[in-house]
Design brief:
By secondary structure, the chain is mainly alpha-helical. It has 5 helices and no strands. The radius of gyration is 40 Å and the shape is rod-shaped. The N and C termini lie far apart (about 115 Å).
């Protein structure tokens, strides 16, 4: 009987050992599976974040309309009807690109420019668009009073 009891006891120990090892293996597998799911979730959130960032960049980077003479939009350059360009503005495209040179050389001053040009509806529309310093002449308000709408 003693022999049978020792055999049963030995079998019980082995069975416990097998069950314990199986439980430990299952716990390790569950931890690994949980880690993989966590990594996938992290990748999903990362991909979602990148997509949202790209969407914001695409929406925010809209092209701004170029200022045009009497054109549409908020950057239109308004010249009063009947105005003609003086001879020293010819050719007009060259003048647009080099008029600051004439001011820097002292051929003209900004005060003289505002006699014909309204800085708010003309000069500063282009200056803002290209990132140049805005024309700021206090006397411009005397020649070009603000219109009340």
């Amino acid at each position: 009987m003693r022999n049978d009891e020792s055999r049963v006891c030995s079998l019980q120990k082995r069975l416990r050992s097998v069950i314990l090892n199986s439980f430990q293996d299952l716990t390790k597998q569950a931890e690994m599976l949980n880690q993989v799911q966590h990594d996938k979730t992290g990748h999903r959130f990362g991909a979602l974040f990148v997509c949202l960032l790209l969407l914001v960049c695409l929406i925010a980077c809209q092209q701004v309309q170029k200022p045009e003479l009497n054109g549409p939009g908020p950057l239109s350059v308004v010249v009063p009807r009947g105005s003609t360009a003086p001879e020293y503005h010819a050719p007009l495209e060259r003048w647009r690109a080099t008029h600051m040179d004439a001011i820097n050389q002292g051929d003209f001053s900004q005060k003289e420019c505002v006699l014909c040009h309204n800085p708010k509806t003309g000069c500063n529309q282009c200056h803002t668009y290209v990132g140049a310093k805005e024309v700021s002449v206090p006397e411009a308000g005397l020649y070009w009073p603000e219109r009340k709408e």
